[in-house]
Amino acid sequence: MSAPAKTLYPASKKERSKIAIIGAGAVGATLAYACVIAGHASEVVLYDINKAKVEAEALDIAHGIQFTPMSSVSGSDDIEICRDADVVVITAGAKQKPGQTRLELAGATVGLMEKIIPSVLEVAPNAIYILVTNPVDVVTYVSQKISGLPFNQMFGSGTVLDTARLRWLVSKETGVAVQNIHAYVAGEHGDSEVPLWSCAEIGNVPLRHWGPTLSGGLFDNELRERIREDVVQSAYRIIEGKGATNYAVGLAVTRIIGAVLRDEQRVLTISTRLEDWEGISDVCMAAPTIVGRQGAGRVLTPPLTLAERDGLTESAQRLRQAARDLGY
């Protein structure tokens, strides 16, 4: 018997990668769309209890696969679709209403996590888990308690979006490309978040040494406070105008997923369980953190002013109390 002919195109030995998104609402569907365009994984799946909605969202995206990096998209109301996912992103939760703070969402959302986390862990125990549902810091803390997963394996999207908003606003003031703005927002993803102005740079130039802005002013305390307020109020304005934020957060979380699946070791302000970081412990909140294939890595400690450290301590106390009020 002759030996089998060798194929000119042997099957690739590269392992397939899979992203599972829990929740097919505005954020979940937009995130799936962004992931397909980015081409971070060979398979993207959507899970939602609304069968008609999740199947329709997945089908709509799948019809555009021809125009994206090669991948597959599917949706189901059966949690089995998430089996063996490399990354699980949880976007399902109570919808934030106009004027409602993120912390006011906590009760209803935590009850939902108590149902979702155990079921998805059964089918994807080894995945890296990214929490996006608001209030993301409290939800991340509670979800870790529910799951028992190590801190690196489950973390929140934190202030990655807030950091992007801050950099965009600084870019508008200076005319410099946003990619060259290096500044971070830490603490709560919410009203008590803290821009880390003391370590902000444009290129290698500290922001305090930048000089006049496009309007002729300086980055003084008044301008910094106005920018901080704009960052905090951004979500409220968008929700009031169109009902939800979805585009920028979809792109922000796609960046986090890419850092994990491509083992980029990228510094991102994700929300992790902090232990003795600037004197802060036993709380999940955002800080500059190295992100790679193992999830959340080293938490960096940038130089801070006393006012920034006090603001972060106050933010941590606020989040810790919110978790305690929910019994965690």
TrEMBL record:
It is found in: Cytoplasm. It holds the Pfam family Ldh_1_C. Substrate binds at residues 96, 102, 134-137, 162-165, 245. Pathway: Fermentation; pyruvate fermentation to lactate; (S)-lactate from pyruvate: step 1/1. The keyword Cytoplasm applies. The active site is at residue 189. Allosterically activated by fructose 1,6-bisphosphate (FBP). One of its GO terms (molecular function) is L-lactate dehydrogenase (NAD+) activity. Beta-D-fructose 1,6-bisphosphate binds at residues 167, 182. Its main location: cytoplasm. It is an enzyme of class 1 (oxidoreductase). Keywords: Allosteric enzyme, Cytoplasm, NAD, Oxidoreductase, Phosphoprotein. The keyword NAD applies. GO terms for biological process: glycolytic process; lactate metabolic process. GO terms for cellular component: cytoplasm. Its EC number is 1.1.1.27. It catalyses: (S)-lactate + NAD(+) = pyruvate + NADH + H(+). CDD domains: LDH_2. The modification Phosphotyrosine is found at residue 236. Residues 18-156 form the Lactate/malate dehydrogenase N-terminal domain. NAD(+) binds at residues 23-28, 48, 53, 93-94, 132-134, 157. Homotetramer. Belongs to the LDH/MDH superfamily. LDH family. HAMAP family: Lactate_dehydrog. Catalyzes the conversion of lactate to pyruvate. This is L-lactate dehydrogenase.
